[in-house]
Amino acid sequence: MNDSVVVTPDWLAAHREDEQVRIVDVRDAWEYDGIGHIPGAVSIPFDSYRDESDVDRGTLPGADAFADLCSEAGISPDDTIVAYDDTHGVFAARFVLTALEYGHADVRLLDGDYSAWNREYETTSDAPEVEPTDYEPDPLSREESPLVGYDAVAEALERGALFVDTREQHEFEESRLPGAVRFDWREVVDDETRRLKPPAELEALLESYGITPDREIVLYCNTARRISHTYVVLRALGYEDVAFYEGSLTEWLANDGTVETGPATEDD
To answer: Which residue range or ranges hold the Rhodanese domain (predicted)?
Structure first.
């Protein structure tokens, strides 16, 4: 697993006091304060970097709003960010995606979550002293970004790209993009350790669904939260041709895109 994308608790324990490592806890503020957090972590709750008002593509908060969050948290563009939550990393992965979109070069997901960390390492209820910065975002261009919109998705369907639906079975059967493969994002997580399964196991699992590095892959769910986790995992495994449908099924349906319903057949 590429540690420039996903880091283990051991890695974080060894590097958390490094000058340029910034740990971001994306749980609710009451969890950060009341349950405890990883020493040195700052609180940037999930709702603070998600905006439903269409200020940017999908639920992205906008570059200025993201910069304000980073500035208040004492984060600089050159810092290494490690994000975590307590939900197997799905909310933290959304932070990773958001930071990458706004040009933060080095942002990583903690393999596991707060509970996984807490099994081996100390936690604290003390918030670190933070010196605000003047964070300058550098958003990716449309050409650089993995995010795609309705028109690009329609073109990818015509090309025969592999569409991966990371939602639950009942959602998939209710409505899905034509020919999509359902891959529950949680399948990559070991329920006992709360961490990702070993790379070889992950690769075999993905291959069993036809999700292989040689395919053009387009990820979607409902509102682009769950696909954030799958996107980060695929990047960590070295997948390169992976598009991220930020509008997901919400946008597709709003534009009257063609869908399939019911159980998938063998031909799907």
So the answer is: 17-126, 157-261
